């Protein structure tokens, strides 16, 4: 009888121990699933739990205050198992969060200034300066252009408006490959024509080699040029071509 009573007491004790064990395990499982360790929480959740947030409930962390490395550190911490590595990551996260809170506090004290509204003024239209065109035959100080060399100490330029276009012509010579291969040949005469201040540029060598040319007369758009050996050429500025000499524009 004493033995059976002892057995009943042991059975009751085992049952109570089993119930306590089940209750403890259930409580442990609930606390594990419902609560997340502070170092595993997101930055926003940790901010809500800090003393600074409780002391100043209006403090908000602007997005520009959150360090760019913080999300990466949190993700790395969630995947890290080594305890020593976890402590190192937690320390880095704490520093980053502290910097974010300090930035948020400064942003609260010194909010960003609003951009001033600057009125846009309409553009002022300034009329372009009109170039002064010297019409007729002239003697100017001209510089060589590529292989064209204007003559000096002679009438070397002519300008006028032809068919609505500004035409400027320089007289001189051109250095070509044939002249280099045959140094005994006369220089190749040529004129350099510029339309509308550079919109179109063309060079017209004389029909035959008689040396550099210069202007000797103009009859409207008909221009007379004389080479070094006295040969005369006629150039029509309206047609932009060499033409035969006309009786209406005699050689002076």
Description:
By secondary structure, this protein is α+β, with helices and mostly antiparallel strands. The protein has two domains: 2-109, no CATH class; 136-243, no CATH class. Helices cover 34% and strands 22% of the residues. The chain is built from six helices and ten strands, in the order H-H-H-H-H-E-E-E-E-H-E-E-E-E-E-E. Strands 1, 2, 3, 4, 5 and 6 form a six-stranded antiparallel β-sheet that branches. The termini are far apart. The model is unreliable at 22-35 and 47-57 (pLDDT under 50).
Described by strand count, sense and barrel closure, the largest sheet is: 6 strands, antiparallel
Quaternary structure classification: single chain
Structural domain count: 2
Number of helices: 6
What percent of residues are in strands? 15-25%
Unreliably modeled segments: 22-35, 47-57
How are the elements arranged and paired?
Blueprint: H1 2-34, H2 43-48, H3 51-55, H4 70-79, H5 83-109, E1 136-138, E2 148-150, E3 157-162, E4 165-174, H6 177-181, E5 188-195, E6 200-205, E7 214-219, E8 222-226, E9 232-236, E10 241-243
Antiparallel strand pairs: 1-3, 2-4, 3-4, 4-5, 5-6, 7-8, 8-9, 9-10
Helix pairs in contact: 4-5
């Amino acid at each position: 009888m004493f033995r059976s009573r002892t057995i009943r007491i042991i059975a009751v004790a085992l049952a109570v121990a089993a119930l306590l064990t089940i209750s403890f395990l259930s409580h442990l499982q609930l606390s594990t699933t419902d609560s997340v360790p502070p170092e595993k929480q997101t930055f926003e959740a940790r901010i809500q739990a800090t003393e600074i947030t409780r002391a100043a409930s209006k403090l908000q962390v602007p997005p520009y205050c959150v360090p760019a490395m913080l999300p990466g550190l949190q993700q790395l911490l969630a995947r890290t198992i080594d305890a020593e590595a976890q402590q190192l990551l937690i320390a880095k996260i704490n520093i980053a969060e502290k910097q974010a809170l300090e930035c948020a506090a400064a942003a609260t004290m010194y909010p960003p200034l609003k951009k001033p509204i600057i009125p846009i003024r309409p553009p002022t239209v300034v009329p372009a300066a009109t170039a002064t065109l010297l019409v007729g035959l002239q003697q100017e100080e001209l510089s060589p252009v590529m292989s064209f060399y204007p003559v000096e100490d002679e009438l070397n330029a002519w300008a006028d408006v032809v068919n609505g276009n500004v035409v400027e012509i320089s007289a001189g010579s051109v250095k070509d490959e044939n002249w280099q291969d045959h140094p005994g040949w006369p220089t190749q005469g040529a004129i350099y024509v510029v339309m509308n201040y550079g919109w179109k540029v063309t060079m017209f060598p004389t029909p035959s080699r008689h040396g550099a040319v210069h202007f000797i007369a103009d009859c409207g758009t008909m221009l007379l040029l004389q080479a070094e050996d006295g040969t005369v050429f006629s150039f029509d500025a309206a047609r932009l071509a060499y033409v035969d000499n006309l009786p209406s524009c005699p050689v002076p």
